[in-house]
Amino acid sequence: MGRAHEVRAASMAKTAARKSKLYSIYAKEIYQAAKGNPDPINNLQLRRIIEKAKRDDVPADVINRNIEKVKKGVTEDYVTCEYEAFGPGSSSLIIKCLTDNTNRTISELKTVFNKCGAKMATPNAVSFMYEHLSVIGVKGFDEETIMDAMINSNIDVNDIEIENDTIIVYAEPQDLNNMKNALESINPNVTFEIDEISYFAKDTVELNEEEMGKFQKLLTMLDDLDDVSNVYHNVEIK
Questions:
Q1: Integer angstrom CA distances of residue 153 from 110, 142, 156, 167, 177
Q2: Which residue segments constitute the domains of the chain, with CATH numbers given?
Q3: What residues contact 223, with CB distance under 8 A and at least 6 apart?
Q4: Euclidean distance between CA atoms 63 and 116, whole angstroms
Q5: Which is nearest to 98 in space by CA: 115, 84, 112, 80?
Q6: Distance from chain centroid for Cα 61
Q7: pLDDT digit string (tens) for 37-48?
Q8: Which residues pair with residue 159 across a beta bridge?
Q9: Which of 27, 135, 149, 152 is geometrically suited to a Cys-Cys bond with 182, CB 3.0 to 4.6 A?
Q10: For residue 66, what are the β-bridge partners?
Protein backbone atom coordinates (compact mmCIF):
# COMPACT_ATOMS: atom_id res chain seq x y z
CA MET A 1 0.00 0.00 0.00
CA GLY A 2 1.37 3.40 -1.01
CA ARG A 3 2.40 6.32 1.11
CA ALA A 4 -0.82 8.12 0.24
CA HIS A 5 -2.63 5.72 2.54
CA GLU A 6 -0.53 7.01 5.44
CA VAL A 7 -1.51 10.59 4.63
CA ARG A 8 -5.19 9.68 4.47
CA ALA A 9 -4.96 7.72 7.72
CA ALA A 10 -3.39 10.71 9.45
CA SER A 11 -6.04 13.00 8.01
CA MET A 12 -8.83 10.71 9.16
CA ALA A 13 -7.35 10.54 12.65
CA LYS A 14 -7.15 14.31 12.79
CA THR A 15 -10.75 14.70 11.64
CA ALA A 16 -11.96 12.12 14.14
CA ALA A 17 -10.25 13.90 17.02
CA ARG A 18 -12.07 16.39 19.20
CA LYS A 19 -13.28 19.24 17.02
CA SER A 20 -12.19 21.77 19.61
CA LYS A 21 -8.61 20.52 19.28
CA LEU A 22 -8.78 20.76 15.49
CA TYR A 23 -10.21 24.27 15.66
CA SER A 24 -7.53 25.31 18.15
CA ILE A 25 -4.73 24.14 15.85
CA TYR A 26 -6.14 26.02 12.89
CA ALA A 27 -6.76 29.11 15.02
CA LYS A 28 -3.05 29.24 15.91
CA GLU A 29 -1.94 28.59 12.32
CA ILE A 30 -4.27 31.24 10.90
CA TYR A 31 -3.18 33.80 13.49
CA GLN A 32 0.52 33.16 12.80
CA ALA A 33 0.07 33.38 9.04
CA ALA A 34 -2.07 36.52 9.31
CA LYS A 35 0.69 38.32 11.26
CA GLY A 36 2.57 38.67 7.97
CA ASN A 37 -0.44 40.24 6.25
CA PRO A 38 -4.08 39.74 7.34
CA ASP A 39 -5.34 40.00 3.74
CA PRO A 40 -5.67 36.46 2.25
CA ILE A 41 -5.63 37.89 -1.27
CA ASN A 42 -2.09 39.17 -0.80
CA ASN A 43 -0.87 36.52 1.67
CA LEU A 44 -0.43 33.17 -0.06
CA GLN A 45 0.39 31.27 3.14
CA LEU A 46 -2.71 32.58 4.88
CA ARG A 47 -4.88 31.79 1.87
CA ARG A 48 -3.61 28.21 1.75
CA ILE A 49 -4.31 27.64 5.46
CA ILE A 50 -7.81 29.08 5.12
CA GLU A 51 -8.48 26.75 2.18
CA LYS A 52 -7.37 23.75 4.25
CA ALA A 53 -9.40 24.89 7.24
CA LYS A 54 -12.54 25.12 5.12
CA ARG A 55 -11.94 21.61 3.74
CA ASP A 56 -11.76 20.39 7.35
CA ASP A 57 -15.09 22.12 8.08
CA VAL A 58 -13.60 24.72 10.41
CA PRO A 59 -16.31 27.35 11.08
CA ALA A 60 -15.92 30.72 9.40
CA ASP A 61 -16.08 32.33 12.86
CA VAL A 62 -12.85 30.58 13.91
CA ILE A 63 -11.13 31.78 10.74
CA ASN A 64 -12.39 35.36 10.86
CA ARG A 65 -11.89 35.81 14.60
CA ASN A 66 -8.18 35.02 14.40
CA ILE A 67 -7.63 37.29 11.43
CA GLU A 68 -9.41 40.08 13.31
CA LYS A 69 -7.12 39.52 16.32
CA VAL A 70 -4.16 40.43 14.13
CA LYS A 71 -5.93 43.47 12.70
CA LYS A 72 -6.73 44.68 16.24
CA GLY A 73 -3.12 44.26 17.36
CA VAL A 74 -3.68 41.38 19.77
CA THR A 75 -0.22 39.99 20.60
CA GLU A 76 0.30 36.23 20.59
CA ASP A 77 3.35 34.30 19.51
CA TYR A 78 3.46 30.65 18.50
CA VAL A 79 6.40 28.59 17.30
CA THR A 80 6.44 25.29 15.44
CA CYS A 81 8.59 22.64 17.13
CA GLU A 82 9.33 19.03 16.26
CA TYR A 83 10.37 16.42 18.79
CA GLU A 84 11.60 12.88 18.20
CA ALA A 85 10.90 9.91 20.41
CA PHE A 86 11.34 6.16 20.78
CA GLY A 87 8.13 4.40 21.73
CA PRO A 88 7.18 0.90 22.93
CA GLY A 89 8.97 -1.95 21.17
CA SER A 90 10.82 -0.72 18.10
CA SER A 91 8.44 2.15 17.41
CA SER A 92 9.57 5.68 16.71
CA LEU A 93 7.71 8.97 16.44
CA ILE A 94 8.09 12.52 15.20
CA ILE A 95 5.79 14.91 17.04
CA LYS A 96 4.96 18.29 15.58
CA CYS A 97 3.80 20.99 18.00
CA LEU A 98 2.55 24.55 17.71
CA THR A 99 3.08 26.28 21.05
CA ASP A 100 3.50 29.57 22.86
CA ASN A 101 5.53 27.92 25.64
CA THR A 102 8.12 25.32 24.68
CA ASN A 103 9.01 24.55 28.30
CA ARG A 104 5.39 23.59 28.99
CA THR A 105 5.25 21.52 25.82
CA ILE A 106 8.40 19.54 26.62
CA SER A 107 7.24 18.95 30.19
CA GLU A 108 3.86 17.63 29.00
CA LEU A 109 5.49 15.38 26.39
CA LYS A 110 7.88 13.87 28.92
CA THR A 111 4.99 13.19 31.31
CA VAL A 112 3.17 11.29 28.55
CA PHE A 113 6.32 9.40 27.58
CA ASN A 114 6.92 8.28 31.16
CA LYS A 115 3.39 6.87 31.35
CA CYS A 116 3.60 4.99 28.06
CA GLY A 117 7.07 3.46 27.95
CA ALA A 118 8.49 6.05 25.56
CA LYS A 119 11.45 8.40 25.78
CA MET A 120 12.58 11.60 24.15
CA ALA A 121 15.24 11.16 21.46
CA THR A 122 18.00 13.54 20.49
CA PRO A 123 17.53 15.55 17.27
CA ASN A 124 18.01 13.42 14.11
CA ALA A 125 18.07 10.17 16.11
CA VAL A 126 14.69 9.30 14.55
CA SER A 127 14.15 11.65 11.61
CA PHE A 128 16.90 10.09 9.49
CA MET A 129 14.66 7.00 9.25
CA TYR A 130 11.88 9.07 7.63
CA GLU A 131 11.31 10.83 4.34
CA HIS A 132 10.15 14.45 4.64
CA LEU A 133 8.03 15.29 1.61
CA SER A 134 5.34 17.52 0.20
CA VAL A 135 2.35 15.58 -1.07
CA ILE A 136 -0.64 16.70 -3.09
CA GLY A 137 -3.51 14.62 -4.43
CA VAL A 138 -5.86 15.70 -7.21
CA LYS A 139 -8.60 14.31 -9.44
CA GLY A 140 -9.44 15.25 -13.02
CA PHE A 141 -5.87 15.21 -14.32
CA ASP A 142 -3.87 12.56 -16.14
CA GLU A 143 -0.36 11.62 -15.09
CA GLU A 144 1.29 13.06 -18.20
CA THR A 145 -0.34 16.47 -17.73
CA ILE A 146 0.77 16.60 -14.12
CA MET A 147 4.34 15.58 -14.90
CA ASP A 148 4.55 18.20 -17.66
CA ALA A 149 3.30 20.86 -15.22
CA MET A 150 5.89 19.85 -12.63
CA ILE A 151 8.73 19.83 -15.17
CA ASN A 152 7.72 23.23 -16.54
CA SER A 153 7.80 24.60 -12.98
CA ASN A 154 11.26 23.08 -12.31
CA ILE A 155 9.89 20.78 -9.61
CA ASP A 156 11.83 17.60 -8.98
CA VAL A 157 9.15 14.96 -8.42
CA ASN A 158 10.18 12.36 -5.85
CA ASP A 159 7.40 9.92 -6.72
CA ILE A 160 3.91 9.70 -8.18
CA GLU A 161 1.12 7.26 -7.30
CA ILE A 162 -2.40 6.62 -8.52
CA GLU A 163 -5.06 5.50 -6.06
CA ASN A 164 -8.46 4.95 -7.63
CA ASP A 165 -9.04 8.22 -9.53
CA THR A 166 -6.65 10.34 -7.44
CA ILE A 167 -3.12 11.12 -8.58
CA ILE A 168 -0.70 11.71 -5.71
CA VAL A 169 2.55 13.59 -6.26
CA TYR A 170 5.52 13.75 -3.87
CA ALA A 171 8.28 16.36 -3.91
CA GLU A 172 10.60 18.24 -1.56
CA PRO A 173 8.97 20.11 1.36
CA GLN A 174 9.82 23.55 -0.03
CA ASP A 175 7.99 22.75 -3.28
CA LEU A 176 4.46 22.42 -1.87
CA ASN A 177 3.23 25.85 -2.97
CA ASN A 178 5.01 25.55 -6.32
CA MET A 179 3.31 22.20 -6.95
CA LYS A 180 -0.10 23.70 -6.23
CA ASN A 181 0.62 26.79 -8.33
CA ALA A 182 1.66 24.59 -11.25
CA LEU A 183 -1.69 22.78 -11.29
CA GLU A 184 -3.72 25.93 -10.57
CA SER A 185 -2.16 27.50 -13.66
CA ILE A 186 -3.84 24.71 -15.66
CA ASN A 187 -7.10 24.65 -13.72
CA PRO A 188 -7.72 27.55 -11.31
CA ASN A 189 -10.64 25.63 -9.76
CA VAL A 190 -8.64 22.51 -8.93
CA THR A 191 -9.49 20.89 -5.58
CA PHE A 192 -6.62 19.34 -3.64
CA GLU A 193 -7.77 16.10 -2.05
CA ILE A 194 -4.42 15.87 -0.26
CA ASP A 195 -2.31 18.89 0.66
CA GLU A 196 0.36 18.15 3.26
CA ILE A 197 3.99 18.21 4.24
CA SER A 198 4.48 14.89 6.00
CA TYR A 199 7.01 12.45 7.34
CA PHE A 200 6.96 8.91 5.95
CA ALA A 201 8.79 6.07 7.68
CA LYS A 202 11.24 4.38 5.33
CA ASP A 203 10.50 1.08 7.08
CA THR A 204 7.52 0.14 9.22
CA VAL A 205 7.41 -2.20 12.21
CA GLU A 206 4.87 -4.52 13.81
CA LEU A 207 4.33 -4.54 17.57
CA ASN A 208 3.14 -7.41 19.74
CA GLU A 209 -0.16 -7.11 21.59
CA GLU A 210 1.32 -5.63 24.78
CA GLU A 211 3.48 -3.14 22.88
CA MET A 212 0.56 -2.12 20.67
CA GLY A 213 -1.59 -1.45 23.72
CA LYS A 214 1.04 0.91 25.10
CA PHE A 215 1.52 2.52 21.71
CA GLN A 216 -2.19 3.18 21.25
CA LYS A 217 -2.28 4.71 24.73
CA LEU A 218 0.67 6.90 23.74
CA LEU A 219 -1.11 8.16 20.61
CA THR A 220 -4.28 8.89 22.57
CA MET A 221 -2.44 10.85 25.26
CA LEU A 222 -0.48 12.83 22.67
CA ASP A 223 -3.71 13.68 20.88
CA ASP A 224 -5.06 15.06 24.15
CA LEU A 225 -2.23 17.62 24.37
CA ASP A 226 -3.33 20.98 23.00
CA ASP A 227 0.14 21.83 21.69
CA VAL A 228 0.46 18.67 19.56
CA SER A 229 -0.68 19.23 15.96
CA ASN A 230 0.60 16.08 14.22
CA VAL A 231 2.21 12.75 15.09
CA TYR A 232 4.12 10.66 12.56
CA HIS A 233 5.27 7.12 13.35
CA ASN A 234 6.60 3.87 11.88
CA VAL A 235 4.03 1.43 13.29
CA GLU A 236 1.77 -0.70 11.12
CA ILE A 237 -1.75 -0.27 12.44
CA LYS A 238 -4.23 -2.67 10.89
A1: 43, 17, 9, 18, 11
A2: 3-71 (1.10.10), 79-128+203-233 (3.30.70.980), 129-201 (3.30.70.980)
A3: 13, 17, 21, 231
A4: 35
A5: 80
A6: 23
A7: 999 999 988 988
A8: 170
A9: 149
A10: none
